[in-house]
Amino acid sequence: xxxxxxxxxxxxxxxxxxxxxxxxxxxxxxxxxxxxxxxxxxxxxxxxxxxxxxxxxxxxxxxxxxxxxxxxxxxxxxxxxxxxxxxxxxxxxxxxxxxxxxxxxxxxxxxxxxxxxxxxxxxxxxxxxxxxxxxxxxxxxxxxxxxxxxxxxxxxxxxxxxxxxxxxxxxxxxxxxxxxxxxxxxxxxxxxxxxxxxxxxxxxxxxxxxxxxxxxxxxxxxxxxxxxxxxxxxxxxxxxxxxxxxxxxxxxxxxxxxxxxxxxxxxxxxxxxxxxxxxxxxxxxxxxxxx
Length: 291
Description:
The chain is α+β, with helices and mostly antiparallel strands. The chain has 2 domains: 3-105 and 160-290, Arc Repressor Mutant, subunit A, CATH 1.10.10.10; 110-150, no CATH class. It has helices spanning 3-10, 12-15, 21-33, 42-50, 56-68, 87-101, 158-166, 169-182, 184-191, 200-218, 235-260, 273-290, and strands at 39-41, 72-77, 80-85, 110-114, 125-128, 131-135, 146-150, 262-263, 266-267. The strands form 3 sheets. A 4-stranded antiparallel β-sheet has the order 5-6-4-7, with no helix packed on it. It has a 3-stranded antiparallel β-sheet with strand order 1-3-2. Strands 8-9 form a two-stranded antiparallel sheet. Helix 11 (235-260) runs antiparallel to helix 12 (273-290). The longest helix has 26 residues, at 235-260.
């Protein structure tokens, strides 16, 4: 399969999957801009979104809304406008980045919070009477409550049903399956190495689609212990594919960013300490996922 074929297959206008402008801009900033200082010229943003079928008017409307929401801040220098991430947005982006680019910590049993007070942190579900449940992971924040940790001792068949009642497992599973089906062609190209030979512009466009569609599932995944996974749970397969494709596209995509994207000081670097660390973590994860 050739680069032209993958370009045609994954062109948003032909596939019918044109992303919403605000969500795609979030993906672009999180992957390409935040680790390179967080600022981008509006012209580059418009050009990048055009490759995803998003018109300039939609981009400008989305940017205005992100500014109003406190996610972006604008600066005009001469006739050019530049938009940077606010401190609030950078903190949110880094939190999402840990899920996307760092091997997610496995859940080792469960946490039970007794007599909870106030709003629960992300990942917790309220069972009733002040009792809450969460997977026991190192990235789960602990609420202000008495905490108990433990492993499941009931039959394995009891847990998927409970998990389905408490978390949106069906929705997350369907999003993972949609991701796998959408990038099945790119997976074929991985096998014959043609994915590694893509033009930089196409590689970045495909990588941004990869992240956009993977994050729809991964950021909603409660990442429960294995005993709570439904049968044929697709999360691990999706993670393997995400890591493999991202690494295959990295060199060409990052090279294109360094040649084409600019902030008020000039071209953005093709690589930074942050992007190098991302790739190093993903490479080590790829080894563990195939081991």
